[in-house]
Design a protein that fits this description.
By secondary structure, the chain is an all-alpha fold. Helix content is about 70%, strand content about 0%. Helix 3 (about 70-85) packs antiparallel against helix 5, helix 11 (about 215-235) packs across helix 12 (about 235-265) and helix 15 runs antiparallel to helix 16 (about 345-365). The two termini are about 55 Å apart.
Length: about 650
């Protein structure tokens, strides 16, 4: 009788789950139909309900016992962002407020179910170690190496030789391959892609305008270090700029090669090493950015260098392949941290120096990088002091980097009379939100209106205002009385808060308009559409800088057409197109961080946490809604974002 009762309860549970998953699938399809404006009469909706039902049921069977709260939190977060972005369009479908509320709830709930089952499946795949088995070399498969498999498949000897060379010289081969793929872009864009920001920095290096930290002075000084000696010798500004562009390209090739070599050293399978190298070499926006005189390019390099050197100074990886340079004597015989190169003390010291350079470069090559690094300090301290004996060298490196940053950023720049960014420049988002209220002609009250009139002239604000671009409003404030604003900043902070409390809907909507490109997991079409890597050539200037093509005819046309096709394919091919979408990469970053935090050892989250905080600082101070270069550092970290959650932390003594 008890067996029959158990069978009955099992049957009831199964039926209840079937109803639950069917209902979830139905709501998910309803949400999707509302978002993409597919008619409810379309029979495809019924097919998709059945498909999602099977998907949800299968995911539940696989993930049973491995569900994580973190996956639910991430799914809810992105469901909210997706609904938030489409809120106005969804509400416009109905006049009745009740129907508007219902459709918003349906979209949020349906996306929550969809994201949760998908994200939870990814969590389970990583947490069960399946990702580790696929991505990393392990003891069980060490006898069937990639080379042995190649022999079994009968590859030609020349391929085996090339593969053997690459395996033994990953750094050198990666460096050469990067330069080979990037060099045609250098020849086509010679002396480099120069924008108005670049012109301003060049003028600073030539002494035509005062030194300014509006664009990081560290980057400006690097430009001057390359440009001035060559210009003094040749007298040709194009040659001097071409030399800087070549130096930048070489530095980035070195950083990419170092990063890829690090991934290989921690046990990444060779096929994934190849894929990572392809990501850095064949994607068209890489060709463009590597020859563009922007701070964002080298900043991305320093963030990558931080991640790669952190992996090395901490020592993580697959059994028998881990990099360990912290303290070789501090490991027992059962530890997986055996190292793969038998690093000498000189190599260990070099790795710490590289990590120090990465920390300083991250903070000095982008102004928001400085804030991101400062935000990292509490997490660095918490992680470091948990095991001070083993991590003291890392903490010392960070402390030295912090002192160097502070000394350069304040006393050194002050002594050198470096002009700091205009006060108004740091207020992009607050200014834009407040001006949205003024553009909507909302009533502020007599006293608050007088306060506004003391700092800006609002006569032409309607003509100047752009919903996704803050520079116009910043110029309006600069043309007014910025000194008075700075002197009475707390009074105007109160005005900003009062206005936000009075018109919260406008503040929220405008914040969405100013930041959507960095968190919305899609690349919107229409007015909000942004194109990646469309910059080309040299902007108008009075310095005599001119573009000179060093390749002509068929090679030039072939390179240009390949770039155009590669960029257009981003709108056509799933997966590949996500590489061009900042919001999608941010979504993947959050999932990766969630997976690592769900594991027992969380120290490896540090490089990804730096990236996350960097994006957060962009969301606080971005002057434009969607500029790919502002989060280019996040895109360049994709191989690390995918790989680090798969690392199996074998030794409980390290992270």
């Amino acid at each position: 009788m008890s067996d029959e009762l158990k069978m009955s309860n099992t049957s009831k549970t199964s039926n209840n789950l079937m109803i639950i998953f069917l209902l979830q699938a139905f709501i998910s399809i309803w949400a999707i139909e509302s978002l993409v404006n597919v008619g409810a009469q379309n029979i495809v909706g019924l097919v998709l309900v059945a498909a999602l039902y099977l998907l949800y049921k299968k995911e539940n069977d696989i993930s049973k016992g491995y569900n994580r709260k973190m996956s639910f939190v991430i799914s809810a977060f992105f469901s909210f962002l997706y609904t938030f972005y489409n809120c106005n369009e969804l509400r416009s479908q109905y006049d009745n407020r009740l129907f508007q509320v219902i459709v918003l709830l349906v979209v949020f709930t349906g996306l929550l179910f969809l994201f949760y089952h998908a994200v939870n499946a990814v969590f389970t795949w990583y947490l069960l170690g399946r990702a580790h088995e696929v991505v990393f070399i392990c003891k069980e498969c060490s006898n069937t190496s990639d080379e042995a498999m190649s022999e079994q498949k009968g590859y030609k000897s020349i391929i085996l030789v090339l593969k053997h060379i690459f395996t033994k010289r990953v750094f050198l081969c990666s460096f050469i391959i990067c330069l080979i793929f990037w060099f045609p872009g250098y020849l086509y864009e010679y002396p480099g892609i120069i924008t108005p920001d670049s012109i301003n920095q060049i003028e600073q290096t030539l002494g035509l305008v005062p030194l300014s930290n509006h664009h990081p002075i560290a980057h400006t000084l690097l430009i001057g270090l390359c440009l001035r000696p060559v210009y003094a010798v040749t007298g040709n500004i194009n040659t001097a700029i071409g030399f800087y562009t070549l130096v930048q390209m070489i530095l980035m090739a070195l950083i990419v090669a170092y990063s890829i070599n690090t991934l290989r050293l921690i046990g990444l399978r060779l096929r994934w090493v190849y894929l990572a190298l392809l990501f850095y070499t064949i994607i068209p926006f890489q060709w463009v950015y590597m020859v563009t005189m922007w701070k964002d390019v080298l900043f991305a390099g320093f963030v990558m260098l931080f991640a790669a050197s952190f992996i090395r100074v901490v020592g993580i990886g697959a059994p028998g392949y881990s990099v360990n340079v912290i303290n070789p004597s501090d490991r027992d015989s059962n530890s997986a941290f055996t190292g793969c190169n038998g690093e000498s003390s000189e190599v260990q010291g070099c790795t710490f120096i590289i990590h120090f350079i990465a920390c300083v470069g991250t903070a000095l090559y982008r102004n928001n990088g400085l804030y991101a690094f400062f935000l990292m300090i509490p997490f660095m301290c918490i992680w470091g002091f948990k095991a001070l004996k083993r991590r003291k060298n890392v903490l010392i490196t960070w402390a030295l980097a912090l002192m160097t940053i502070i000394v350069i950023r304040f006393p050194v720049m002050s002594v050198c009379s470096v002009v700091q960014p205009d006060f108004v420049e740091s207020l992009s988002i607050p200014i834009q939100l407040f001006c949205r209220v003024l553009v909507e002609d909302k009533d502020l009250g007599a006293d608050d209106t007088q306060m506004v009139d003391k700092i800006i002239d609002t006569t032409y604000i309607h003509e100047l205002y752009a919903y996704d671009f803050a520079d116009n409003m910043k110029e309006l404030f600069k043309a007014g009385h910025p000194d008075y604003l700075q002197e009475h900043i707390w009074e105007y902070a109160g005005l900003w808060i009062r206005t936000g409390l009075k018109y919260p809907g406008l503040y929220i909507d405008e914040y969405k308009n100013m930041t959507y490109g960095y968190w919305y997991p899609d690349n919107p079409k229409g007015e909000n559409y942004y194109v990646v890597a469309e910059n080309d050539g040299v902007c108008d200037n009075a310095l005599g800088i001119q573009r000179r093509w060093l390749i002509y005819g068929l090679p030039a046309n072939l390179w240009l057409k390949t770039r155009e096709i590669g960029i257009k394919l981003a709108d056509m091919i799933p997966g590949y197109g996500m590489l061009y979408c900042m919001g999608s990469t941010f979504f993947i970053l959050c999932i990766a961080i969630g997976i690592i935090l769900s594991k027992e050892k969380r120290g490896i989250v540090m490089p990804l946490l730096l990236v996350f905080l960097g994006v957060c600082t962009v969301l606080i101070a971005t002057p434009v809604a969607a500029d790919f270069r502002y989060t280019y550092f996040m895109t360049m970290m994709i191989p690390f974002i995918i790989t680090l959650p798969a690392v199996d932390i074998i030794s409980s003594r390290k992270l």
